[in-house]
Amino acid sequence: MRYIYEKTDFLDTRCYDEFALCSEILMEHAGLALAKAVQKRLPWNKKALFICGSGHNGADGIVAARLLHGTHDVAIFCPFDLKAPLARLQYERAQKLGVPVVSELIEADVYVDALFGAGLNRPLDTPTCRLLDTVNAQKGYKIACDIPSGIQSNLALSNTLFRADETVTMGALKLALLHDNVKDVVGKIKVASLGIAHTLYDVPSPYVLVQKKDLRLPFRRSKNSNKGTFGHVAILQGSKEGAARLAGMGAFHFGAGLVTLVGDKPKKLPIYLMHESSIPHNANVVVAGMGLVDFDAATIGKRLLDNDLPLVIDASLSYHPLIQEIVASCKPVVLTPHPKEFSALLKQLCNEEADVEKIQSNRFSYAKMFSERFQHIVLVLKGANTIIAYQGELFINAYGKPSLAKGGSGDVLAGMIGALIAQGYTLKDAAIQASLAHALVSRKLTCNNFALTPIDICKGLKWL
Predict the structure, then answer these.
(1) Average pLDDT of the chain?
(2) Is 100 left (phi over 0), alpha (psi -120 to 50) or beta?
(3) By CB neighbour count within 10 A (0-12 exposed, 13-18 middle, 19+ buried), where does 174 fall?
(4) Is residue 251, in this structure, part of any structural domain at all?
(5) What's the pLDDT tens digit per position in 367-381?
(6) What is the DSSP secondary structure assignment for residue 157, as one 8-state letter?
(7) How far is Cα 378 from Cα 393, in angstroms, rounded to an integer?
(8) Are 433 and 395 in contact (CB under 8 A)?
(9) Cβ distance 256 to 280 under 8 Å?
(10) Using DSSP, how many helices (H) and how many strands (E) does the chain show?
(11) Is residue 151 within 8 Å of 120, Cβ to Cβ?
């Protein structure tokens, strides 16, 4: 896992105060990292244009151009007057070395956006938006220095954003890079070292990026075991039987020893799933919500609340008043809403009016607020970058792909979370690990990105 920060200025200041590293040392390392990223995309006969702003982000770009000059064809374009003393100093050094400087945008094979970085605190003006539109229309490979221009420090977005194929962010991960609304413009994210290992540069943060190496699959290490060793998942079945069936398949494929669908006898059931009219006495967790339409609230409420089992709640229960009783019971709960369902939860549980657009613009703040208010709940807010929020900590899973945007994908995820809880994972760890496995399956399967099915996800778990 890797810490993420809303702002990183204090980390640089800590380097100055505690490690006696001056800003120029950090800048040289930032420029070196940027130069290396450009070099990988710059064969001997290709040209790179560094579009540099007036502050330290522009200075980083000038340093990178200076480091590449002499062995690569590079040029600097500064559309604004240089204001920061270090930017002026780096420009003077580049000029003395003969780095070409152009007065307008020229054709290039690599374009580097070093205009603003993480410090942008206002919307971009019209001329800058026109400049970015022109650059975005070019065919060359595009690299952003620190953060693509147009993303503001308060996570608001300008009318135009630099559309990067790759972002080299300086020192540490920025929260703004992991917002759903910028998933299409940040490209591949690389964190550049500033002359100090990230283990020393980073400090604890409530925001954490979940990485592939964090995956902990439910491998069966005990030889002296039976199906009961690996837990029993009960899934409440609604009138839309397929949803519960998919959740059951997800639970079974993710290691649960037993999976039972509870409710009316289904018309068709995979042979490895069981059916009961009531929750089995040896169940370890109850998964509910998927496919529940026009249900008997009294019956469902009794099945959910008349026991001490943890709950995984998905889909339609987010809209039903029964969710208020579930939350008020203080039972351990995992909620797995998409943004529209989260909007309904906020209205019912927090008296907060927030439509999908508002939630998507403020995902981190809403998830953090909700998890701090309801400390017995693990929230899994689904999206392009899924957020797992618990007691004010946010774990962000950025591995999701558009191929998962299909009806039934979330049902499988709910079943997977239930399976891990049944096998002894804490609710938080079950949510993190199931979300991570669910997303990694979508990256591992090699079919085209419009044809992935929920059943493919279940089958793909075999090959993680």
Answers:
(1) 92
(2) beta
(3) buried
(4) yes
(5) 999 999 999 999 999
(6) B
(7) 10
(8) no
(9) no
(10) 15, 19
(11) yes
Burial class (CB in 10 A: 0-12, 13-18, 19+), 263: buried
CATH number of the domain enclosing 134: 3.40.50.10260
**Could you tell me if 217 and 180 lie in one domain?**
no
- Claim to verify: residue 33 and residue 75 sit in the same structural domain: yes
Instruction: Please give the C-alpha separations between residue 233 and each of 124, 213, 256, in angstroms, as whole numbers.
Output: 52, 27, 7
- The answer to whether the CB of 303 falls within 8 A of the CB of 398 is no
What is the rounded (10 degree) CA torsion for 34, 40, 46, 49? Answer: -10
What residue numbers bound the domain in which 412 lies? Answer: 213-463
Residue type, 19: F
**Segment 322-362, tens digit of pLDDT:** 999 999 999 999 999 999 999 999 999 999 999 999 999 89
Model confidence pLDDT, tens digit, residues 128-156: 999 999 999 999 999 999 999 999 877 88
Residue 165 inside a domain? The answer is: yes
Residues 217, 150: one domain?
no
Token pair of 23, please? 């800003």
Starting at the edge strand found earlier in the chain, the sheet holding 188-192 runs 101-102, 73-77, 47-52, 110-114, 141-145, 166-170, 188-192
Residues in the chain: 464
pTM: 0.92
DSSP readout, 64-97?
HHHHHBTTBEEEEE--S---SHHHHHHHHHHHHT
